[in-house]
Amino acid sequence: MTGRGGAVPPRPAMPRRGVTAVRRDPLSEEVKAELARLPLRSCDRGVMAALLPRAGHLGVAARRLAHRAEDRAPRAALRRACCRRAYLRGLFLAGGSVSAGRSGYLLELRPPRGEIGRARAVLSRERLRPQERMRRGRVVLALRDADAIAAFLRAAGATETLLRFETRRVAREVRGRTNALVNADAANLRRAVSAARAQRAAIRALTHDGRLASLPDSLRAVAHARLRAPAATLADLAGRLGTTKWSVRSRLRRLVDEAGRL
Question: What is the pTM of this model?
Answer without folding.
Answer: 0.55
